[in-house]
Structure formats: C-alpha cells, structure tokens
Amino acid sequence: MKKVGFVFINSVEGGPRRFSIELLKEFAKKKLDFNLIIFTDTDKDLDFLKQNLNIKLRIIKRFSKYDLLIWEQILIPFFAKKENIDVLHGTKNSIPFLGKFKKIATIHDLAYYIMPETFSFLQRIHLKLSCFIIKKKANIITAVSNNTKKDIIDILNIPEEKIKVIYNGINEKFFKRVNKKQINKVKEKYNLPDKFILHVGTLQPRKNIKTIIESFFIAKKEIYDLKLVLIGRKGWYYKEILKYIKKFNLKNDILFLGFLNESELLAIYNMASIFIYLSNYDGFGLAPLEAMAAGIPTIVSNVSSLPEVVEDAAIKVNPKNAKEVAEKIILILKDKDLYKQLKKKGPQQALKFSWEKSALEYIKLYKQHF
C-alpha cells in the first residue's frame, strides 16, 4: 500500500494549524486506500485519528522555537525515509530539500514578501529559504486562493501549470445557532455588551488593528453604546495597539478576550452585531467566512483574497480609510434592510466552501503523484 506523509506544526496556533486539523478530521472519516503518516510535534487534539486504521501518528518533538529549520529540513526527511513515504505533503509553506519521495507544498500566502516589515529578520530568512526549496523541489504547489496563486506566479516566478488552487473549507459548526443558555453563560463570563463589533485574528500589524480602532472611534460618536471585542493571541504588535487605544481614550470600550476555545468563539459569533476584518493582506480569510456562516453582517478589506472569498455577501472597504469603514459600520447598523440582506447572504456564500471538498481534492492529488 502506498504511503503519504503529512507534515504540520501542531504546537503553534493559527490558520495553518486550523487548515491541517480540519483536513485530518475529514481524512479520518474516509476509507483510505493508502496509508497516511502524520509527522507532527505533539499529539494535542489528535485523538480523532485513532478511528482510522490507515492513519499513523509519528511524533517528532521540537525542543525550541528556534529549531524549526532543523525539524523541517533534517528530521522530517530522515523519518520520512524510515517510513518509506511515496508522497510528502508540507502543509505550511515548506517542504524538505532532501528526500527522493514526491513533494506537495501548500502555500497559504506570501506575506513575508509583500509585507516584510511585519516579520522579524530571522522569520524572513527562514520563509524565503522555504520558498526557494519549494521552487526547486516541489512536484506540485497548492494555493488556498486564486489570489495566492497569482502571488506565487508573480513573486516566485513559478509556472502556472505547477500550481493548483484548493480552497480552504469551513467547519459546519459555524452554521449552527448556539442556544441561549450557552450564549448567556459566555456573555456573563466575559462581561460582553449587547451591541458590539467583533474582530477575530492574531493581533499583529498585517491584521490592521489600528484602522479598526480608529474607525470604531469615529463610529462611536454616532452610536455611543457600541463596543469593540478583539479575539486572538497577542502578536509582537500588541503594545502598539495599547498605545493606540490610549490615544483615542477607548480603554473602557474595547475588550481583549485572547485566544478562545471553539465553543466560546461560536457563542460570541452568535452575539456580535458586526464582524470586521481589515487585513492588509490575507491568503484566504477564514475568520470572515466563519462570521458570515454564523449570520453576522461582515465588513472586509477590498484587497488580496478577501473579495474573492466573500464575493457580494459582505461589505468591502479600503482598509486604509478609517472614515469609510466607520461610515459602513453606521450604515449597516442603521439600515435594517441592508442588515437583513447581509445576514441572509453570508451563510449562502459560506456554504460554497467545505473541508470535505478540500480533503477529497487533496486525496485525488496524492494519488496522482504515486
């Protein structure tokens, strides 16, 4: 039986981890006619894999946040060779240089080329080296959107025929309405207001939190009881955000909830008045899609992959224009017909994306490279 290696970093929260976990959940449900070997650094949240006898977990521990290059380029090909892998899938913008097996690389985005100032020097070196290896050694590259595919062609000068677009999916849980008991429990726990704007994402420069805060400040002049809720882990940009909040005197109007578990996140999606996502650059934009599935009127940037993902089911704005964003916030909250229209269109658009569909496309791709 053929063997596929699936490589992902399980210890670091974020979009690529979500991508890997969701794909693995779908693989675990399937009757696979090949063996799937998961190479990862921890077995956290992976108990569901035990249900499929054709899936094997291989834990390769990391001992420092600085050993990623060694883990990817030395340990992974070593253990892949031991397992006699036929095809290896690198799920986070990376594949090993070594190894005679076929290699599939998923590129989520090229932010480190487009917005290098939002990455440390060491991160840029590592990520650009990874792209060089992908260009030289990948048999096929998957992109999570057409926008990312275009970036790969334009920036890395990789031929279009070597790139396949496979969209991310969305977990079906986000379409379900949370019961009032759970909503009230979460609302009380975090002392949430009745009317609030929600943003979900790591607090980092690329997510453009400053413009969100400034547009909230402007909108609040007209809708005085409005609050802003930020969900996501703190990035290196976090202290600058605090300074910005102080500048606008919004300390009592903005809530930082940090990283939440899925059940709490679902409840808050069901409470929010508006979802806002003004990222300067995104490879796909999973959070806006989740918000739309939950029926929240959504505002997104009119750049990168976001217009491609939301189509006409969300309001698109210039992410650098806080005044324009504030006007749209006020418009959505005051125009009841528009509010209802966005609540209806959001779930319809989100239904176009499915992790099962994504998983089936990857299974087909693996088999094409045996």
Q: Can you tag this structure with a few keywords?
A:
Rossmann fold; single chain; 6-stranded parallel beta sheet; 2 domains; alpha/beta; 370 residues; 7-stranded parallel beta sheet
Question: How does the SSE layout of this entry go?
Answer:
Blueprint: E1 3-8, H1 15-29, E2 35-40, E3 55-59, H2 68-82, E4 87-90, E5 102-107, H3 111-114, H4 121-137, E6 140-143, H5 146-156, E7 163-165, H6 180-189, E8 196-200, H7 209-220, E9 227-231, H8 238-247, E10 254-258, H9 262-269, E11 274-277, H10 286-293, E12 298-301, H11 306-310, E13 315-317, H12 322-334, H13 336-350, H14 355-368
Parallel strand pairs: 1-2, 1-4, 2-3, 4-5, 5-6, 6-7, 8-9, 8-11, 9-10, 11-12, 12-13
Helix pairs in contact: 1-14, 7-12, 10-13
- What is the CATH topology of the largest domain? Rossmann fold
Helix percentage? 40-55%
The figure for the number of domains is 2
What is the straight-line distance between the termini?
Answer: 10 Å
SSE pattern, N- to C-terminal: EHEEHEEHHEHEHEHEHEHEHEHEHHH
Oligomer: single chain
